[in-house]
Write a structure and sequence with these properties.
0% strand
Length: 113
């Protein structure tokens, strides 16, 4: 059973990824910091931090591929689509975490287990 504090920290793990819209690689650094701070004392934050981190790593890999594809024009559209998709999934995951639901991103490479 997770507590209100765990729900808030889980939500923070997801929302901290929004730093990537301001700081390069902030989308990875934000969830990483929250996860490293709270993973040992809060199991809910441990699972949600890993989910957020895995999803943001997946998004960075997709963005790097899209940047390469800019030379064939489709990369520009892919970058916009990725940014919108990332924002939508961050909002959904944050809402679910605030309710105490363990959210799993549907498209994510699970590098951290």
């Amino acid at each position: 059973m997770s507590t209100e504090a765990e729900h808030n920290w889980g939500m923070a793990a997801h929302l901290s990824a929004l730093a990537g819209y301001v700081i390069p690689f902030g989308s990875i650094l934000g969830p990483l910091v929250v996860w490293l701070m709270k993973k040992d004392e809060m199991p809910f934050v441990n699972s949600q931090g890993k989910e957020a981190l895995n999803f943001q790593i997946t998004m960075v890999i997709a963005a790097l591929i899209s940047i390469v594809l800019i030379f064939v024009v489709i990369g520009i559209f892919l970058l916009w689509a990725l940014a919108i998709l990332d924002l939508i999934f961050i909002i959904i995951a944050s809402i679910q975490a605030s309710k105490g639901v363990e959210y799993r991103y549907p498209i994510s490479i699970r590098l951290i287990k």
